[in-house]
Specification:
With 358 residues, the chain is of the alpha/beta class. The chain is 27% helix and 30% strand. It has two domains: 115 residues, CBS-domain; 224 residues, Spore Coat Polysaccharide Biosynthesis Protein SpsA, Chain A (Alpha-Beta Complex), CATH 3.90.550.
Length: 358
């Protein structure tokens, strides 16, 4: 790796978690190398390290020295056939990057898994193993936030470029090993049923139908007897660029009843905010930005969660989560990019630009 490219992966230990998130997005290689003033490697930071830090309660302005991995695996620059040695390290330790250090511990290079594969002939992409876990797509709502579009088409069939929203959702799950889908239907359901029947998708597709509008979670009660293993629930207006297999693994490792996928978001207040103390003005925060984690509307659930819902009764997802949270563990899988909420006009327009639509 040339030195100019290597510099893009190098960061100081006193930068914030938020800045590290932005750097990871820029590099697209899932790792940063934390160095001191002499370029000595102090640790590494991955998206997993950031996720664990946020879960442990660290703020987005916390320093990355609190989350960096100090027990990193590295190679020495003087080693013969360093590429082959790094490949063995990657395979043995199930990692994708190896920093290369000189005899003083300074980082002089980095070898990535893509470097190891480079030049090998006819590299075939690894075949994704299909899992039996089902994905429930909530497609029964009226989509009033997208009026007047949804007066004609149901929200799940709204196009993004040359594909519908639900096609994109199913593709992303399928790319991660999930190809069994169950739709919950109500509003303009015949349109959706005809589309699913006639499109000849290479997936297993079933549906259930609401007689009444049961809220954002009520239709899950109709799945009783249809689901016997951990399953995903996805709103039909939420697109995520995330490895759903990793999310499922996280859910299992944390032994959760429900895992919520949450996304970092900035809330910008376009006013000066007055901070008071003892009835007196302490300071004015001019147009502050607050970092929060927003519910993306995609969840992992254990099948017994269905028993919390009275069949045929209206219940929203936040109420269900509160009920489960009183007795069982609920976790959050935070992401910091790659979420599109297509359920409102401004985000829909943004999605068209990002996904190459009109």
């Amino acid at each position: 790796m040339d030195k100019s490219k290597l510099k893009t992966f190098l960061v100081s230990s006193n930068i914030s978690i938020k800045l590290a998130m932005q750097k990871l997005n820029e590099t697209a290689e899932k790792i940063l190398f934390v160095i001191d003033k002499e370029n000595k490697l102090l640790g590494t930071v991955s998206d997993g390290d950031i996720r664990r830090g946020i879960i442990m309660g660290l703020g987005f302005n916390s320093k990355i020295e609190l989350i960096m991995n100090k027990k990193f695996i590295s190679a020495k620059s003087i080693m013969p056939d360093i590429k082959k040695y790094s490949e063995k390290l990657m395979l043995d330790n199930k990692i994708e990057q190896i920093p290369v250090l000189d005899d003083q511990g300074k980082i002089v290079d980095a070898i990535f898994w893509t470097d190891v594969l480079e030049g090998e002939k006819e590299q075939k992409p690894a075949k994704v193993k299909m899992l039996s876990n089902k994905v429930v797509i909530m497609a029964g709502g009226k989509g009033t936030r997208l009026d007047p579009f949804t007066k004609i088409l149901p929200k799940p069939l709204i196009p993004i470029g040359n594909k519908t929203i639900i096609e994109l959702i199913m593709e992303r799950f399928n790319n991660n090993g999930f190809n069994k889908f169950i739709y919950t239907l109500n509003y303009k359901k015949e349109y959706i049923k005809i589309f699913l029947k006639e499109s000849n998708f290479p997936y297993s597709i079933d549906w259930i139908e609401e007689n009444d509008f049961l809220g954002t979670a009520g239709s899950i009660s109709l799945l009783e007897g249809k689901i016997k293993d951990t399953f995903f629930v996805a709103n039909c207006d939420s697109l995520l660029d995330v490895n759903f297999h990793d999310v499922l693994k996280w859910h299992k490792e944390h032994k959760s009843a429900i895992t919520i996928i949450g996304s970092h978001n900035e809330v910008k207040i376009p006013f000066g905010v007055l901070e008071l103390s003892g009835g007196k003005l302490k300071k004015i925060l001019e147009k502050p930005v607050h970092d929060i984690i927003i519910n993306t509307g995609i969840y992992v659930m254990e099948p017994h969660v269905i028993s919390y819902i009275t069949k045929g009764k209206h219940i929203d997802m936040n109420t269900l989560i509160d009920l489960v949270g009183e007795k069982e563990k609920i976790t959050v899988y935070p992401i910091y990019s790659g979420w599109l909420d297509i359920g409102q006009w401004e985000e829909y327009k943004k999605s068209l630009e990002i996904l190459g639509g009109i």
